[in-house]
Amino acid sequence: MISRFTDPHPDEIFYSVCARFSDRAQYRSQRSIVQELFATGNAIATVGLPSHLGRLVGALIPGHRYSVDQLIDEHTLLPFYAPFLPPARLVQLRDQMRGDDGDAIYTRAGIMASRIPLPPYLRFCPCCAREDRQRFGECYWHRLHQIPGVEVCPFHQVWLEASEICIQRRQTRYVFVSAERAIQPTPARALLPSGACHQVLLQLARDACWLLNHQVPVLASEERRRRYLHLLARHGLATASGIVHQRELLQAFKAYYSSDCLQLLHCELDETTQDHWLTRLVHTKEVAQHPLYHLLLIQLLGSTAETFFCLSPEYLPFGEGPWPCLNPVSDHYRQSMILECQITHNWKMGKRPVGTFTCSCGFTYFRAGPDQSPEDHLRRDGVKAFGLQWEEALQKGWEDPTLSLRALAGHLGVDPLTVQRHANQLGLIFPRPGGRLGQLKEELQLRSPASHVPAPTLIKAYRDEWLAAMKADPGAGIRVLRSRVARVYTWLYRHDRDWLEAHKPPRQMVSQPQVRINWNSRDVQVAAAVSAAALRLRNTPGPPVHLTTTAIARESGYLALIQQHLEKLPLTAQALDGLIETREDYAIRRIQWTTKQYKQENFYPKRWQFVKRAGVDRLAAVPRVQQAIDDCLALLQTTGSGS
Domain-by-domain residue ranges, the chain? Predict the structure, then answer.
């Protein structure tokens, strides 16, 4: 029973709460702390997504104010990952954090499959640490500072600093180290207000902070995609029907984010394949993607985490109805009378959506969207039909000799030429009473629907020209023919579309060549990375780290690639073969390290003490290991250490 559990501070990560409890409890060993907190020796000191929380809450004295859900929501990183996970998977994660099965938590959260690594060291903001000490008498580890991709403090606008507490070493898996013991006074490094990358990092930190501190709805992948399409269409990167312009999206992404910034965040796009993470985000695949990817796309589209999750999932480029009637001669001018907006897509207007609005008075207008301000609600780009009421006003004004043509045009909301053209189409008298203009020139007149029908000889001429182009190159597709005889295609499309549709070349299924990964180049890169990783592990201060394939691959940042595609990386496999240690080699390194420790302490141990401290009791009988123990004990004795 835990009688005096440490009260968490605001935004304190659960690991830090346990570390402060450890400092106050003053147990002789870290394993004792784990046993006390979780009533089991199998729990480990996990920073972001801990397990065994049900055991801890159950071990608190009766009447405590803590619950498992409270600890998860307020003192772990799950709220950062939760909004981007499938709902069923989120339920499983909560159950695993509550229970004892913590092995698959990071895999189920999609963290292990991502190329974004977890921060290897606990991090802190120098300004936050100073303020915490002034407010609480001690500093602590903030959960916001431990999130992958959060490199700056959004409150003080300074860089986060890495402590010396490595959280990915096997030898520290049962150790809770408090911030008060680890953080030394450190000067803060301010961000540059003019730095584009700095502003990107600052917004990412603000978004992560908002996610941690709000009950964010968990969206199904299809609903999340609808919100992305909403924003993409607003920026001209998708159509109103949901087709994403992948090439334009990629260009916009590369223009917004510098390569250095993406490299810092480990979010580079692999352009050797068409299935990179940016493409996957805007599709409906039920695959958990790292939240950092989502936040980068949200920021690119001019939004924030808060506005994104408050966004209507339906794309409304012209806002919500009803919309105003813009017939200037009606008694309901600018009043919201139109209940429906018909949205089409006009490629001539830069792939923008076009809304058509029809009032009961017959007045029909359109405008290109999306609307950018409330004033756009009263804007029209053109009129498709004026309606009977407008035409009656035109006829009445046309017959009024006291009304000038320009005044009449102003009353009708059009230019004088439009007044004349519609007057001519309605068969009104030319010249108008009191007017000086004669009959409207034929080339300026509006044509009646009947006059739009071309002469049969003209139709035949265009058809023959199109058929001749198809015959000249039977294998050409529609795009090739359109480029060769663009004039003919345009005329037929406008005047003889049904015939053109029936006489198109068959649709060609063009299979775009898939860009393949250059495995030779990738192999050289990964082989160099594993060699450097092995060197870092070998030179890591403290007890030696066993150089296994998994340890080296994880340190290199290519764990998933090596686990899944090692057969395609022969140089990497060869490098690993020469770097990994046998159990005997690892035992000998531990023996050598233990010898150095005893030398520094000026102490000559008994053999059983030496073996236990080196952790080689199971291999002590192996000839090579036994010889190494004998040699090191003899060395310690000859250096004159006391017994």
Answer: 14-182, 219-309, 323-385, 388-451, 453-502, 519-581, 584-638
